[in-house]
């Protein structure tokens, strides 16, 4: 009997089109074996004293910290992220692990007063958690899943995206260096329909955390439903950046390009629809155009670069398919590399798919609105609901609009979406459940209730 050819994946630097590594894709049989090992390791990992689990996670965070520059450079080469962004991403992964390292000793249960005895609730780990990661922010998104899962006493199998396995593989090495048992945190580079789907169908995987497109997320949720398996979904977005006439227009216009073109627009929180109060549209557009034309697109290893390439040629073709007649574009290098310029669509067009679908590239729509009610109507006219920004000097309006937008993460006079200590996640088809912050821990536990009779039964 001949052995099957190994399934190898060539990892490409999107800024140079050079192959930087050849990574074997995990097979179905290897995935099953890894899940079995993770299930066996759960028995001992859940029993590790909370203080010791905390110490191991702190050591893991320290190992990531010591390796930050290396991790950042790996991401620059693998995903084409600007070096400034990649450093932030490595730092975010470190912060998230450190934050949840405090959790094992603080996973408090409750004692609820009842008649006839003592009633205790415990937060118990689930077992094996399967984490499926997209290619756009490989390091942070991996850490948002595995750090709370491990802290709560679960074991983890993690699948990075086919295109971007490098930093996840390095994180697994760092976990081992820090002393985490090998089978407690395993990284399985592989294909979605092989490894990812097996996380969904394998009965020993008790929870799936999926970050990626809404289309695949729906299939993952349906598969989990068949086994009543827990699932957290972090999916697509089409977020609004709402600029009122009373806003600081200089700041709003100067920051708007970064809010959508950061990571070349490959950001689930990208503010890809700019809603501007009609009375200041021309004023805003003049400032915005100057800012867009100034965005420095090019070599991601250069500290001054603000935007790198798209992830692949196929993705660039998909992005380009949304653009008919742009109002104006910034500039970008010719190639090699999967470059695409910052692109602003003709203001006012709300009738085409570029205004309703997630493009996941450096393309932005601009739409005027009349008043608050009109702004909310346009902002909410999407199946997505992940994030958004509101620019105004009126605090009452800021809060009214923030409460009115159907999205999980809003910011006022800022474009911030992610802080490791606060909840992150989407409304509507942007997702299910929340990551980060204190609440995410509960998403990796089951609540168990135990009653102990202390009175003679009558
Ligand atoms: P994708 O859905 O194509 O893939 C995501 C992951 O799922 C990859 O690891 C892929 O291999 C795997 N996968 C593919 N098919 C699968 C299957 N049948 N079963 C199980 N797993 C499968 O998404 P992508 O193109 O890698 O990422 C871009 C998308 O991710 C965008 O829509 C973006 O908005 C979304 N995203 C959301 C968030 C968030 O937090 N809400 C964050 C980042 C990215």
From TrEMBL:
<dbReference type="Pfam" id="PF00171">
    <property type="entry name" value="Aldedh"/>
</dbReference>
<dbReference type="InterPro" id="IPR016162">
    <property type="entry name" value="Ald_DH_N"/>
</dbReference>
<comment type="similarity">
    <text>Belongs to the aldehyde dehydrogenase family.</text>
</comment>
<dbReference type="InterPro" id="IPR016160">
    <property type="entry name" value="Ald_DH_CS_CYS"/>
</dbReference>
<dbReference type="InterPro" id="IPR015590">
    <property type="entry name" value="Aldehyde_DH_dom"/>
</dbReference>
<dbReference type="GO" id="GO:0016620">
    <property type="term" value="F:oxidoreductase activity, acting on the aldehyde or oxo group of donors, NAD or NADP as acceptor"/>
</dbReference>
<dbReference type="InterPro" id="IPR029510">
    <property type="entry name" value="Ald_DH_CS_GLU"/>
</dbReference>
<protein>
    <submittedName>
        <fullName>Acyl-CoA reductase-like NAD-dependent aldehyde dehydrogenase</fullName>
    </submittedName>
</protein>
<dbReference type="InterPro" id="IPR016161">
    <property type="entry name" value="Ald_DH/histidinol_DH"/>
</dbReference>
<feature type="active site">
    <location>
        <position position="234"/>
    </location>
</feature>
<keyword id="KW-0560">Oxidoreductase</keyword>
<feature type="domain" description="Aldehyde dehydrogenase">
    <location>
        <begin position="7"/>
        <end position="450"/>
    </location>
</feature>
<dbReference type="InterPro" id="IPR016163">
    <property type="entry name" value="Ald_DH_C"/>
</dbReference>
